[in-house]
């Protein structure tokens, strides 16, 4: 169950990271509210996952999910570079996340 919670926490990390862009430096009220709510939910879920998962593994996976999702949405939503090299390095982060999951006995 902790891995599922951690994945959801990572999805909320993506939400708050993207929300930062939409909040325009916290100058837009509703995007700022959504960003802060997503940040709090992400942290609470990460803290819950840390009750049973090693901190190093959980934190690396959480940030990895956030990095991959945010970079991907940056390409899709904000027309950031989708060069093959960039996408390949994003893929390496995914490999790292999967490797950490498998090597820690996660299921």
Topology of this structure?
Elements: H1 2-23, H2 29-49, H3 55-78, H4 84-103
Helix pairs in contact: 1-2, 1-3, 3-4
How would you describe this structure to a colleague?
Helices cover 81% and strands 0% of the residues. The chain is an all-alpha fold and 107 residues long. The chain has one domain (2-103).
Give a brief rundown of this model:
It contains four helices and no strands. By secondary structure, the chain is an all-alpha fold. The protein has one domain.
Could you list some keywords that capture this structure?
mainly alpha; 107 residues
End-to-end Cα distance, whole Å, is 9 Å
- Count all strands and give the number: 0
Run of helices and strands: HHHH
User: Helices and strands: which structural class?
Assistant: mainly alpha
The DSSP helix count reads 4
Structural Rg = 15 Å
Mean pLDDT: 96
Strand portion: under 5%
Spatial shape: flat
Helix content: over 70%
Q: Main sheet?
A: none
Identify low-pLDDT runs. Answer: none
Number of domains: 1
